[in-house]
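re the bet — no i am not wrong, look at it urself. input seq straight from the record:
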Amino acid sequence: MSHGWNYKEQDKWPEACQGAIAQSPIDLDESHMVKLAMNPFMLRNWDEEYNATMTNNGHTILVELASRQPLAITGGGLPGQYKLVQFHFHWGAEHTVEGKRKALESHFVAHNTRYRSAVEAQKYRNGLAVIAVLYDEADRQNDEFNPIVENLQKIRKTKQKTVIKINPLKLLPKELTTFYRYFGSLTTPDCNDVVVWTVLSNVVPISRDQVKKFATIEDHEGKKLFRNYRFVQPLNGRTVFEIHTDECPC
């Protein structure tokens, strides 16, 4: 992945980001979606507390779990089994809902287990699956975010790292039975169009003060990263599905 880019000059991102027709994020407009029923998700080994390394990479806050057992994602209409690699955050949200942007969005990035790594999977259609969670401002803080927001000052500068304990399932909504599905791309250069996107429709509350703490970290130039979302991209004829499943047996 190229690192010589920033969110302020998206028109200068690599040619692959400008010319591909299946780019992400998109606006989610239910009036133009196709409704489907599918089997529920199976999230194996997600509901545990793990040690994790949290890094400021100059573009986002990246969290990598230290686990001897793979955090697997199957079902939900995914074309195979996927293994969680990392999750990270965008403030404000990248996907919009009927033109409106939420306060925060997390991306849980997983690669198809038919490939050895996420790097290899980026070469193939459906090589990656991303579960996106939208968070909206609420009057009270979300205590599940405390391990993250309380440690942000330790990684204010680029390339700084810290170790936290986190349960990834608790960052997701309690109900995973409805979501949006479409084929798209990574939202950062090189914008590979290889991603099966799942945007959960249930929104998780988070306080305004918690969101503001994300915007205190610095980018590669030592400036505060006030926002790190890519602008929405045209659908170019793609179909977006509104999925309903039975209760998730996570």
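see?? The radius of gyration is 17 Å. told u. also The mean pLDDT is 95. so pay up
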